[in-house]
Amino acid sequence: MKNSCRFISVLSLMLCCLACGKTELRISEELGEAPLIFPDYRDVTIPCNIAPLNFSYKGDEACCLLVEGVDGEIRIDGSEGLFSFPASLWKKLMERNKGKALKLTVAIRSGNGWAGYEPFRLHVAPEPIDPYLSYRLIPPGYEGWKKMGIYQRNLENYEQTALYENKLTDGNCVNCHAYCDRDPGRMLFHARAGHAGTVLLRDRTVEKLPAVADPSVGTLVYPYWHPSGRYVAFSTNKTLQSFFNSHPNRVEVYDTASDVVVYDLLTHRTAYSPLTKSADSFETFPAFSPDGKQLYFCSARAVDPLPQKYKDVKYSLFRIAFDPEGMAFGNRVDTLYNAPMEGKSVSFPRISPDGRFLAFTLHGFGNFSIWHKDADLYMADLQTGGIYPLSEANSDDVESYHSWSGNSRWIVFSSRRIDGLYTRPFIAYIDEAGQAHKPFLLPQKNPADYYTRLMYSYNIPELMMKKVNVSKHEIMNVLRSSF
Amino acid sequence: MDKKNILFFLIAAALFLLFGYFLRETLQYALFWREQQQLFLFDWPYLVENLSRPGGLSILAGGFWVQFFYLPALAVFLTLVLLAVVTLCMWLVVRTMRPALPVYPLSFLPALFLSLSLFDICFRYEAVTAYLFAALAFYVYSRLERFDWKGRLLAGGLFVLALFYVAGPVTVLFAGSVLLYDILMRREHALCSLLYPFLALLAGYIAVREGAIATCMHAYTPLGYYEMGETMPFFHYLSWFMLPLCLLVAGSLRGQGSGKHRLQAVVSLAFFASALFLFWNKYREIRNPDLHDSYRYEYYAVNEEWGKLADVASANLHTGTALNYLNLALAQQGVLAERLFFYPQYGPNSLVFLPRDKAPDVKLARILFAMGNMAAAQNVAFNTCFTTGGYNPSMLKMILQIDLMRGAYPVARKYIGLLEKSLHYAGWATAQRKFLFDDQAVEADPLLGTGRRDFPREEAFVLSASPMDDLYKVLATNPADGKAMQYALSYLLLAKDFNHVQALIEQYYGAPGLKTLPLPAQEALLFYSDYYHTMDENYALQHGITQEQFRLGQTVDLDYCKAHGVSQETIDRFQRFKEAYGKNRQSPQALVAYRHTFWYYLLFTQI
Q1: Which domain, by its residues, includes A297?
Q2: Does the beta-carbon distance from B209 to A471 stay under 8 Å?
């Protein structure tokens, strides 16, 4: 049976090649340099269930691509520089080369022959990534917009559908979508302005979260679900932004007050500890541990006046015990990263589902890392306490928001490395030692064209185990209702 | 064409010429402003994205038409063409109801009231193209004479569904109107045409349920063509009411038999006249000349016709907008400080007004750009550009230029690529490619080079205090920026802050941006000198002037003034002014000869 499957696979591959009209190609000249391609997929590690990694050769010459895997070599001709993998061929390539590497050689016309660039490899990891990714698309100004929405993308193909678009509620702001353990059945997001509220999707029903009764608790902002699905930790932030006169960061977004509270979805009660809600500190970005017994959050000594002293705001990374039974907090915090001592600032702590690693963003100061060119991804090994940069994933530009896959082998993160302004999602493989491999840009049918044309930033990329299946109309009805 | 038709044609042509004149006088710059609210792209994904939603073709058709509105006269002409086609279709429909002559005036009414809606900028232009599609569909439907009732019903049903896809909510109007038409024309099984409204309502309901349209009001009424989040005034329904009303009037005339043409004509004309009266009253109610003027200023600003902008704005200085644009035009001509007091000014807000909210503000972006406050200009331009829903092209150009100044070439290249997909801006965008990744070319370019040098070295946030704080930083890094210098001087003059005027002159007189001293600055420096030389020291100290400031003031004597650009003629005039002021201390009228001086502004203008 196994053999016949293999035979059918090989035969299919050959048929695909024949269908593409491929003939044998002989490279008569070695160029001895790496090809200029977009996206830079050279030597990246990819999940075996990812959509085809189409890419473009950036030169003007006629070009073709030789792909060499366990079943031999196939050829793909470039169309205006674009190499498009047929979906079925790609799927088989992934299946047959799982745990191995594909060797790719870009060749260009040179006289009557072909000249080959240095080959590169696509490492096909056997571990799949969660099949869906959701994100908000918004112009990277954050003050003015017309259209925005929360979208979901099937990572196994190129299909993107709208989960919710603000055109249904008079163009208001929608933000901060969050899932319980990547489960699209338990999800929430906020809507602001005219039709404000927190939309909660649970057990196939859509509802608006009742307002917090405790007057000392401000507006709920950054959410993180407790793994039980009963609680959501929120930060409450008073956020402002100012614009630099010449700094390459352009914008500084800062909180003048913030706290962390836990909201009980059953009783609609909020709870907090003086260690998570204090006037002397700015607490933000809560995240539960996978067992639900720890709450991680960032905290900075409160600074005044702002924005004048914006560089003095540095967030440490803390952890406090949380008892889900009694909705109670421990009476001390552990410090995982001490900002006053180490000199930098932490945002977005995210613990791998296996509980082994904690990925976070580290930057010079403040908490809104997407506007910080120096922001990089770091990892804390929760077994050893060691902290190190994810060097392979980082770039000279911003790396910021990130989320883990269910098997703890992949992270998706935001980066502005392509043009310095428009945030794009990258996916990186995290090996068992907690090291990142070279990341790849979210695949598109024609990535060069797509990303050039797209005038929106990807915001809060969150992996999901499946698609959210709820009608936009239902969400709209909930938001438009007075409660 | 028979004589009657030629006559109809000539009357229609004359009426449209007259109406064209009216639109040119009242709407041309508002139409231009519509062009500034969109960027029509010759790009497949853009076309496909639009076509994939209900009413998408009318959006595309409207966008395609509006892209030519960069010339106001062309905008009026093209709008007239659309309105004329709507009228023609209406005429071709109502004339089938016979007798033709009496119903002729009625065919103008839907287009007339459709044009009324265009006075409201929140009413999107796609409503006109959607109406046009509906009118065309109506005309074709009225010609389905060869079909039996079943064939007609099938065709009509298909029309409804296709029209909903192509034009959106106007389908409800179409469906209701063709039902009415069938009844009035006593077509076979006319009541079966109730199917059309049912289909239109069903299509709208499905679109709402699928989340393609927000609410049923958006699916069934002109609200679907209105800016989201805004409250639509009732008068936008008028063009929708006019169509069935005209049919009803035409139908009622038809019922009176063929022997009463004169009476029918009188009834029709009376209805037309009443509608015209309603139109005129509504127009007077909704017109906003100040708003229209601001579109006009923006037209001249976009086209960099600074002389004309100064002329039109100065003729209308009762609004802050006009003053801001006037001063911008003067700054762009390099005469802001020189001619500042030729016009009534009311403090620094006359130069730049910072609203508390973050509303889109093209004027503010232009002023900040002229001030050399590039980061602030880019922020305002970005918000303005991306709140239109379809990019504001002149704001996009500004963002692009500032990114070139910053050396943010990959983003600049992205915006160039976007503009190159448009018809009107492609050439300009392509010309910017030469600056990409070429710092030398950017620095050598007068605009981009100055802008790049304007980015302050001292790190700070923009607009966190007054615009003057930012101007100081711009000048500290680029004292050669003449426009920034003009704005700085004018700002201080308008703030009556002659201490800082003196400090600015002390620091920058002779710098490339201040080679000569503008007359009002000369006047301010003389006043400063006189002020500190005639003041008793004890009095000064008692009134909050520090000793250091007092001593500094006393160092500014006439020799100092002359050395800093004050002419003998100004000194002499100041002497004369002082004498005149001594005699007529509380009488501005007596000093009217000095009304264009800083002295007059300082003493008699309240800010």
Answers
A1: 132-480
A2: yes
